[in-house]
Amino acid sequence: MKRRGRTFLYDFRASGLKEGMSLVELVVYGALLAVISVFVVNTIVMATRVISEVRAERAITTNGELIMQKIIREARQATSLNASSTFNVDPGDLSLTTIVSPTDYTETTADFYTDAAGDVYYKKGSAASALLNSEDVSVSTIVFRKIFTATSSEGVRVELTLQATASARYVISRNFFGTAILRGSY
């Protein structure tokens, strides 16, 4: 038998293997690939949705804590509530007579208010207004309630509802509450 040189083509007939796949095998493999693909795509879509919901939850929590902390801290340093404050309505405005800083006892005003877009602003003295919430979170409710204690101390209760959209079908809304007694009233 004459030997030929090496060939790069595999001789299926000599090895006893078939030359290709039958139509039935091709359909089965295609169906199996489709089922696995649907499972993988569905898993990716669900993971993406969960990640966006977690991001929205985190944004609401972070914004709520920051806004409440700023309002409560300013109220605790304040000596009185100003007449320009709007209580027991949504949206409310809070105007406080307070000090410039813990080391500077010069009196100034601190104002908290919202705009039509649902953003909360903070203005102290003659400084420019500062936006307190991020762009992906909006304020749906903010109510300030004036409170009095038995010792004739003055305080304020804050009710805040924030909202964020995680997806077209999932809107997150959380309530935050806080109370502060004004420093100058006790």
Features:
single chain, 186 residues, alpha+beta, 5-stranded antiparallel beta sheet, 2 helices, 32% helix, rod-shaped
Number of domains: 1
Overall shape: rod-shaped
Order of helices and strands: HHEEEEEEEE
Structural class: alpha+beta
Instruction: State the total count of DSSP E strands.
Output: 8
Provide the residue-averaged pLDDT: 84
The low-pLDDT segments are none
Strand order of the largest sheet: 1-2-3-4-5
Helix proportion range = 25-40%
Task: Report Rg.
Answer: 33 Å
- Tell me the fraction of residues in β-strands, as a range: 25-35%
Distance between the amino and carboxyl termini: 113 Å
Number of helical regions: 2
Q: What characterizes the major β-sheet?
A: 5 strands, antiparallel
Topology:
Blueprint: H1 12-15, H2 23-77, E1 80-81, E2 94-99, E3 107-114, E4 120-124, E5 130-131, E6 138-148, E7 154-167, E8 170-181
Antiparallel strand pairs: 1-2, 2-3, 3-4, 4-5, 6-7, 7-8
Describe the structure.
By secondary structure, the protein is of the alpha+beta class. It has one domain (38-185). Helix content is 32%, strand content 32%. It is built from 2 helices and 8 strands. It has helices at 12-15, 23-77; strands at residues 80-81, 94-99, 107-114, 120-124, 130-131, 138-148, 154-167, 170-181. The strands form 2 sheets. Strands 1-2-3-4-5 form a 5-stranded antiparallel sheet, covered by helices on one side. It is rod-shaped and about 95 Å long.
